[in-house]
Amino acid sequence: MTDVKHVSAFPDNFLWGAASAAYQVEGGHDADGKGPSIWDIFSHQPGTTHEGTNGDVAADHYHRYREDVALMAEAGLQSYRFSISWPRLFPEGRGKMNPAGLKFYSDLIDELIKHGIKPMITLYHWDLPQALQDIGGWESRETVDAFEQYARLCFEAFGDRVELWSTFNETLIFIGMGYFTGAHPPGLTDAKRGIQACHHVFIAHAKAVKAFREYKDSRLINKKSQIGFVNVMQPHDPISDKPEDIAACKMADDLLTHWLYDPVLKGEYPAHILEIAQRTWGVPEFADGDEALLKSNICDFIGVNYYKREWIAANPDVDNTKINTTGKKGSGKEFGFKGLFKFVRTPESTYSDWDWEIYPQGLCVGMQRLKDRYGNIPFYITENGLGAKDPIIEGEVLDDPRIKYLSDHIAAAESAIKQGIDVRGYYPWSFIDLLSWLNGYQKQYGFVYVDQENNLARKRKKSFFWYQNVINSNGTKR
């Protein structure tokens, strides 16, 4: 929380924004012809989420988007990153389009532009149409083809007004927790199926990028438009200098970072990990043309979602993939895959109530490591935020820990720019309090509080006015 008078390192065209995701904020789960997503079904199954919470209503952004956009404009947001709900546009995942869903997003985009806020669209933030899951979900090539149809519709409908696009959000999470740990839909613990599903996601991404560039070449969408991919950025460091801990850390990098960044930034998988996967499980299976498709459709930019670093240790014993969803600090057990690596905590570090290390320098460190591997690709910090149980004192939401967290991370972003990293925007998670997938409404991230007991009334938090000053000063008042 500095107020140092200095020339900002953030360029004049730097985008100060905030982010959200359709399932977590919109509600209107069956409004106006929307079809069910996998999360609409999964969250209603007993024991899947905190206290049975779901996104049926969420923050009701679907019905209150004009009120929310007015708040964004008041805060001074220059950009808003949001996702489109695929089953709102295609209730069956493909085939017949839902005009009411298309109108909602068109109206939202127009409302943002009217207030001088640049839209950044994420095509897929985990809410796969249930109809496609019923035919195999991401394990099916039919889902790949359906995604291309969906992406093309979005480009055709919104490409004249939207310049920033990303295809997928956090493959590490929706594939990792959907197919390896079973905590997200489809709730599987099957490495073979997960690896093949992950491959199909990258092929769907490449097909969408190819279509996007065809539209740009034919001038059907804005020539200044760019398309990227959003990944978790989770730097790993070995807990000691022991050879086994260093080796475990390298394995974590290969599996949790390089496997997910290489296909979209280099157009190929890490060769040694690909060889291990195909020798062990026989996957990923490549269809004719897959290799060339990946190679010829590299991203224009990468979006990084940074929340924490992980300390890595060798793991001869721990086989646990459950995480802290209670918000009780220290209640999480060591997470690890036996024989590969595990995440460990150190008393020298500071942690959130959900046992996530607070390490602002990691934002700069992580981007530098990615730059070292992939070159000077443009970065957008597409998520960064503190999940907390915000105190309300005499009617005011005094979220000082969030202000401290974001201030320190903005300083790290500025440091990255000074070191020559091409950072073009900062989108804290999230603009408004929303549903946390597994944690319900207890884990708050927003600048705007949503009163679940009072008709979802919106209330500006202390951080709202702080971020307003950050934006107005282009990052110097923080």
Protein architecture, described:
Keywords: Carbohydrate metabolism, Cellulose degradation, Glycosidase, Hydrolase, Polysaccharide degradation. Pfam families: Glyco_hydro_1. The chain has a single domain (15-303, 359-472), classed as Glycosidases (TIM Barrel). 39% of the residues lie in helices and 15% in strands. The chain has 15 helices and 16 strands. The protein has helices at residues 22-25, 38-42, 61-75, 86-89, 99-114, 130-133, 141-158, 171-180, 191-217, 243-265, 271-281, 290-295, 361-374, 400-418, 462-472, and strands spanning 15-19, 79-83, 118-124, 164-169, 226-232, 236-238, 301-305, 310-313, 335-337, 341-344, 379-383, 392-393, 396-397, 423-426, 448-451, 457-460. Helix 3 (61-75) packs parallel to helix 5. The longest helix is centred in the middle third of the chain and has 27 residues, at 191-217. The protein is globular.
Could you give a short description of this structure?
With 478 residues, the protein is an alpha/beta fold. It contains 15 helices and 16 strands.
Indicate the topology:
Elements: E1 15-19, H1 22-25, H2 38-42, H3 61-75, E2 79-83, H4 86-89, H5 99-114, E3 118-124, H6 130-133, H7 141-158, E4 164-169, H8 171-180, H9 191-217, E5 226-232, E6 236-238, H10 243-265, H11 271-281, H12 290-295, E7 301-305, E8 310-313, E9 335-337, E10 341-344, H13 361-374, E11 379-383, E12 392-393, E13 396-397, H14 400-418, E14 423-426, E15 448-451, E16 457-460, H15 462-472
Parallel strand pairs: 1-2, 1-14, 2-3, 3-4, 4-5, 5-7, 6-8, 7-11, 11-14
Antiparallel strand pairs: 8-10, 9-10, 12-13, 15-16
Helix pairs in contact: 3-5, 7-9, 8-9, 13-14
